[in-house]
TrEMBL record:
InterPro entries: Cyt_c_oxidase_su4_actinobac. This is Cytochrome c oxidase polypeptide 4. Signal peptide: none annotated. The chain crosses the membrane at residues 7-25, 37-59, 93-125. The keyword Transmembrane helix applies. Part of cytochrome c oxidase, its function is unknown. Belongs to the cytochrome c oxidase bacterial subunit CtaF family. Keywords: Cell membrane, Membrane, Translocase, Transmembrane, Transmembrane helix. It is found in: Cell membrane. It catalyses: 4 Fe(II)-[cytochrome c] + O2 + 8 H(+)(in) = 4 Fe(III)-[cytochrome c] + 2 H2O + 4 H(+)(out). It is a multi-pass membrane protein. Associates with subunits I, II and III to form cytochrome c oxidase. Its EC number is 7.1.1.9.
Length: 138
């Protein structure tokens, strides 16, 4: 975790320097001033990288040294539970179709968005509750 925190600190500081330089260059040489899309986007990405770095740094202080920080660690030490998925589940398909219709609805028409929300909610509820009913009930 410490290595990941260092990577994000370096990335955040680099992006902050690039954002300031980009803002200075566009402010100096563009007739309309600082470019209104790229400069805030670079600042936002730098801020996100710094927030991730702060979170990883705080987590590294609370937790013990993990396998990613140990130079003599094996790959198998970092493995863990990858998740539990029910076989033959249709819920991810319905959720993906709902999300696709929502994005299409934003571009093409709001009535498509409504159908996407309905199908997406059905898919999410099915996915969340699939271990509560049917063949894979616990």
């Amino acid at each position: 975790m410490r290595a990941s925190a260092k990577v994000f600190w370096i990335l955040g500081v680099f992006l902050l320097i690039v954002a300031v330089a980009y803002g200075y260059v566009t402010g100096s040489y563009e007739p309309m001033g600082v470019e209104p899309a790229g400069f805030p986007a670079l600042l936002a990405v730098a801020g996100l990288a710094i927030m991730i770095a702060m979170g990883l740094t705080l987590a590294a202080k609370k937790n013990d040294v993990g396998p990613s920080d140990d130079l003599d660690a094996e790959v198998s030490q970092h493995g863990g539970v990858q998740g539990s998925f029910s076989p033959y589940s249709w819920a991810p398909l319905w959720t993906a179709i709902g999300a696709a219709l929502c994005f299409l609805g934003i571009a093409a028409g709001w009535w498509i968005f409504a159908f996407g929300v309905i199908i997406g909610v059905y898919g999410i509820l099915t996915w969340v509750l699939e271990f509560s009913v049917g063949q894979h009930q616990h």
